[in-house]
Amino acid sequence: MQQNVNQPVGMDGEEDFAALFEASLKDRGHDGLLKEGDLVKGTVVQVTKDYAVVDIGYKSEGQIPIGEFTNSRGEVTVHAGDPVEVLLESRENDTGMVVLSKEKADKMRIWDEISAACERDEIVKGVIVGRVKGGLSVDIGVKAFLPGSQVDIRPVRNLDQYLGKDFEFKVIKFNKKRGNIVLSRRVLLEKQREELKKETLKNLREGAVLKGVVKNLTDYGAFIDLGGIDGLLHITDMSWGRIGHPSEMFNVGDEVKVVVLKFDSTQERVSLGLKQIQEDPWHRADEKYPVGTRIHGKVVSLTDYGAFVEIEQGVEGLVHVSEMSWNKRLKHPSKVLEVGRDVEAVVLDIDPKAKRIALGMKQTEQNPWTLLEDKYPIGTQIKGQVRNVTDFGIFVGVEEGVDGLVHVSDISWTQRIKHPGEMFKKGDEVEAVVLNIDVENERFSLGIKQLHPDPWDTLSERVPVGSRIKGKITKTTDFGAFVEIEPGIEGLVHVSELKDERVENPRDVVTEGQEVEVKVIDINTQDRKVALSMKALLHEGGDDYKEYLRKQAEGSRARLGDVMGSKLKR
Prior knowledge:
CATH 2.40.50.140; alpha+beta
């Protein structure tokens, strides 16, 4: 019966062969006669469709299944007259012919060769043909076992990657009687690694540029086999640019050229660099990207305050959120940008030593503020909604992205406004006049009071010096009393102008809210001051009165200036 050449070790066919092999060891050479289990030489005398007939010089010939002479392509490899070596399994069968086996003879010869190789500590070659429990099956002429722990230096998770591949092995266990062979590839690899390591150490020094193979990838870097010794290429030393994971640049098995950054010979630790082989792109960045240069880049990161744009590998610039749009108030860059988007920007500032470039996106477009001067010349009246109310004024929307400020001092000519919120709220529609446009600082100044003439400009016409008017006491102080002579316009009756007699305390003469009659004795339009007198009413008439008014006016101007100055300071 034909034997299966791929039958695993431990099956019945192998056990029969082992028994025959053991019997041959016992019987060989005892009396020179052919014995069952002997290897004998013969000649092929006939080749048929099913058998090859072999003459071994015995009283009868033997038939060997043609399958034992067929190669992997199904081709018969024997012809009549060819010499062959066969195993005598039995001297005679039921038909009177000897039972021979070419296959078992080959195996026995291979076992002898393997046994001799073991004794000489030689290497054997084979092909990995399958997976078995605990490792791999290897064909070295006969089936042998390669444990998973002996496949490589490092533990292997996927043994299927070795199927069908040829390797060299070291026999680490051999038992002829049991037909058991255990191989190791790891032993050879470790020996090769030690030899490579000796050579590598001769050239291993800081600054040396070496070739290596990527052995393993981690989140923080790649381990490079330099030849018997591994070095770590940290992720920060892979590229001048931004890298999220080493797998973005390498695959296991890639060949790379690296430079030795640091070598600890005592612990055999090697730190490697790849980017250091190339020039730092920041060295000449200011020459390549002077202020005002337009660049194209890719957004690589977004933060609350802006976006980082990669101009070239290793060179990134920041577009601050305030430099993204002329007229949009952006709370976050993600409103207009996303990671991976290509953008155009202008270099605003560059500091190669600090590795910083300030970029602006809005500068690639015309500044709308430069158009505002032509569109809204000073004196133009506009309407808009109150966008915001602050302590110092109100912001009025002029157009999309442009607000004008009405300072609290430009709300009214005459009213004392403690807070703009007393008069306006967000959303109110107001009219105003353009006072100034500062393009460089992007400031738009508006005024509401300028919609109407300044009442102080014509006050002297309405209440000329010497006129007699009525008003209400708005405030009393140690130095006099303030009288409202028109809505929002007050004049001061100095303490010396209350009565002819000396007055120690103005509150003894007048009270707040009291209506009084006074005389206008001076008006200072520029300083917005009006001097009033109550006692002047007691001396009206004649030239003496005119002279009196002249002297009083001179004194009132001096006193009014001092008092009002003191009041303003307080």
